[in-house]
Design a protein that fits this description.
Multidrug-efflux Transporter Regulator, Chain: A, Domain 2, elongated
Length: 117
């Protein structure tokens, strides 16, 4: 039996799931680089679960955060590469902890150089 993550969706179905018309999905595909659904042999768009999540994020960036398509494209690219601002407070706290650990490690290295002098 196929895993749900392996399921593929058509553009009309994705439009309903995301809450935007199919023509908006087509526009996003041309304007927002990281959003590129695959195509089947008949050249129809086929969307994966990951594509649907990206479409939902694009909608959030454009409608809720009032970003331009250029801004949304840049932010999405950063997020997909793991760069950029944390999405949640938990992510922010984890990043702060990681930075703190790295700074402490650097201070320890510098302290060793001071001891050698």
């Amino acid at each position: 039996m196929a895993d749900l993550d392996d399921r593929r969706y058509g553009i009309a179905e994705v439009g309903e799931l995301v809450g935007v018309p199919a023509h908006v999905l087509r526009q996003w595909e041309t304007r927002i680089g990281p959003f590129k659904p695959r195509r089947d042999r008949a050249n129809r768009r086929i969307y994966s679960v990951g594509d649907i999540e990206i479409a939902r994020r694009i909608k959030q960036l454009l409608r809720d955060e009032k970003m331009t398509t250029q801004g949304a494209a840049k932010r999405l690219e950063e997020e997909l590469k793991g760069v950029g601002r944390p999405k949640t407070n938990t992510d922010a706290l984890e990043l702060i902890d990681k930075i703190d650990e790295e700074v402490r490690a650097m201070v320890d290295i510098l302290d060793k150089y001071d001891e050698d002098d």
